[in-house]
Amino acid sequence: MVLWNGDKIVSSEAFILMALACWGFWGIFEKKALGFANCKEVLIALYLLNTIQIPIIAGILNTTKPHWHLTSESLFWSGLASLTYAIAMLAYLRALSKTDASYVLGTTACYPVISLLLATPCLGEHFSLLRFSGSLLVALGIFAIGLPNGKKEPQKPLSNEVKICVFIAAFAWGLWGIIDKKALSIADPLEITMGKYLWDAIFLIFIVQMFRRNGDKINLRKSGMWKYCALSAVCLAFGGFSYLSAMKLLPASYVISITSCYPVIMYVLAVRFLKESFSVARFAGIALVVLGGALVHFTHLLG
């Protein structure tokens, strides 16, 4: 029994590390894709790439779990998760296209705190003041990472639209984690992923129609966009599965809090590959994120 618990902890930590690494690269690839296309074109491309993965996931499920099926309850929760994700991504990509990646990362950093506050009434999880403090430190640290640095940042002036978009994205992501945990109480991670992608295919039709009614011109013949969107989709696929697998094994408040550290990886990559500048304030932000993540992890070990 002790050995099984030990194996469980090792596997869950491996899933968390995989999610952190994949999500760190995901944001960089999406920022690069936005250099070739607007946020709406990138969103459609990502949805199309998700749809392509449906037969792949079905093949894996048929091999590993021959008698799998999606119940009406699992379809409901996966659909709700897909809708929440769509709202968050649309708001996130819109903000990302208007200002620096580091600012958007910083201002959306409060989503784990939102999830933690919702986990007690919605999931019945025990509220931990230490875990809340750790999550708050992570949020404050990532906010510091996203602070404007001198006259050069943000490269584009902030507007009310950007502020509204990052608020919507942060709240939707906080709620998304709670919905995911609900869904995982009914079905396995791959089944929930399948349900999400099926709903994504349906939502894609409505999203395209909405863009057309607004008179938006969508051009998907951009090779640069597709290259980086494909890389982003791969990161999201592996990162999402790892995240759901960890969520299946551990409390939602812990997984959401610890995986919220991924923007640190993303920021370091943004400095390296997107040539965004580094500052003392952002270094302090990284230190806060590490401290907050350590506190969350320590709280988890205490049980």
- Name the assembly state: single chain
**Biggest β-sheet strands, sense, barrel:** none
Order of helices and strands: HHHHHHHHHHHHH
> Span between N and C termini?
17 Å
- Rg (CA only): 19 Å
The pLDDT mean sits at: 82
Number of helical segments? 13
Number of strands: 0
Taking pLDDT < 50 over at least 5 consecutive residues as the criterion, the unreliable ranges are: 1-10
Strand content: under 5%
Shape: globular
Question: Helical proportion?
Answer: over 70%
**Structural class, judged by helices and strands?**
mainly alpha
Domain count, please report it: 1
General description of the model:
The chain has 303 residues and is mainly α. The protein has one domain (16-302). It is 80% helix and 0% strand. The chain is built from 13 helices and no strands. It has helices spanning 2-33, 39-52, 54-64, 72-98, 101-107, 111-123, 129-145, 160-184, 189-213, 223-249, 252-259, 262-273, 280-302. Helix 1 (2-33) packs antiparallel against helix 10 (223-249), helix 2 (39-52) packs antiparallel against helix 9 (189-213) and helix 5 packs antiparallel against helix 7. The longest helix has 32 residues, at 2-33. The two termini are 17 Å apart. 50% of the residues are buried.
Q: Can you summarize this structure?
A:
The protein has 303 residues and is mainly alpha-helical.
What's the helix and strand layout?
Layout: H1 2-33, H2 39-52, H3 54-64, H4 72-98, H5 101-107, H6 111-123, H7 129-145, H8 160-184, H9 189-213, H10 223-249, H11 252-259, H12 262-273, H13 280-302
